[in-house]
Amino acid sequence: MSIGVAERGQTPPPGPQPATTTRGQRVLTPPVTGQELVLIGVIVVLWAILAFTTPAFFTAGSIQPLVGAVAPIALIGIGMTVVIITGGIDVSVGGAIAVCSVIVAKLVLVQADQSLPVALLVSLLAGGLLGLLNGVLIAYGRVHAIIITFGTANVFLWISLRIFNSSTVNNIPDTLAPLGNGAPGRALGIPNSFVITVVLAAIAWFYLRHTAGGRHFYAIGGDQLAAQLAGVNVRQRILTAYLLTGLLVGIASMFVVAQGSNLGQNVGNGKELAVIAAVVIGGTSITGGRGSVLGTVLGALLVQTVASGVTQLGWRSELSDLFVGVAIIIAVGADLIRERARSKR
């Protein structure tokens, strides 16, 4: 019978000792990570600089549109965070926004003159079907996510253009005003769309952090084979991640349509890049296995702050893409350095 070191009265060997936990306990990462604290600091500094250089920045007429613009990017970013945590990616969300937006604007509101609940239900169904299509092809087709979603992005764009019929959707009624940037879409000065996004982000944060189902997504991204051997239904979880993203695209499309009385054919252009930028800048590892919804919301706020700041300073709009691109490179580089450090340990 073996006898432990402590039982023999010997001094434990030098170096870090294994953590001891009681049954049923597990170690959690801090509620707010170091990268998220850095993001908060960067945003505070940027806001201070913009408030000093452009006094109009800290007015309601500037902050309200800013957080309103953050809402759809951060909302879709919640789903994208889960997707990237599993080791996947979805570059079709821009096309999916176009499909959901034109269906709601043209078919539901302009032609059928339906109510907000009906529009929301239709948008959720449309987004959910598009996300489900991606999920089925990726989870059961065993083809890399970027190939599948790049293909479906073009299919979605073609569908949206066919529904648009090569013309802008005009005279959209104000049915979705409670989700827009105007006075009916604000409560206590805060856009309702942003409040909805924060609430859904908090739910997603809790689910990923404190439930077994949420931890399964991390396990899949860390080592898919090991997760499968541990009893995780990998295919079902991957399908769920893309379905969730599609449903959130459906809600975000409502925010997009609510922003005005017209809808152009370029409605979803570039949105996938903004979403992925927010997720990566927010600290989610592009290789999978690590990520935070809180970081994604902060990343979306940083991206939109840069875009708003460039506009208010009167600089060329291309500089916004430059700054965001540099931020992505720094974030990915930092993640790779951390990954190598973990591998060495």
Quick recap of the structure?
The protein is mainly alpha-helical and 345 residues long.
Structure keywords:
mainly alpha; single chain; 68% helix; 13 helices; globular; 345 residues; two-stranded antiparallel sheet
Question: How would you characterize this protein structure?
Answer:
The chain has a domain at 67-267. Helices cover 68% and strands 1% of the residues. The chain has helices at residues 5-8, 34-53, 60-85, 93-111, 116-141, 145-164, 192-210, 212-222, 224-229, 234-257, 271-281, 293-312, 318-344; strands at residues 186-187, 190-191. The chain is mainly α. A two-stranded antiparallel ribbon has the order 1-2. It is built from 13 helices and two strands; from the N terminus they run H-H-H-H-H-H-E-E-H-H-H-H-H-H-H. The two termini are 32 Å apart.
How many helix segments?
A: 13
Record field, number of beta strands: 2
Query: Overall 3D geometry?
Result: globular
| Residue share in β-strands | under 5%
Structural class by SSE content: mainly alpha
Name the strands of the widest sheet in spatial order.
1-2
Give the H and E element order.
HHHHHHEEHHHHHHH
End-to-end CA span: 32 Å
What's the SSE blueprint?
Elements: H1 5-8, H2 34-53, H3 60-85, H4 93-111, H5 116-141, H6 145-164, E1 186-187, E2 190-191, H7 192-210, H8 212-222, H9 224-229, H10 234-257, H11 271-281, H12 293-312, H13 318-344
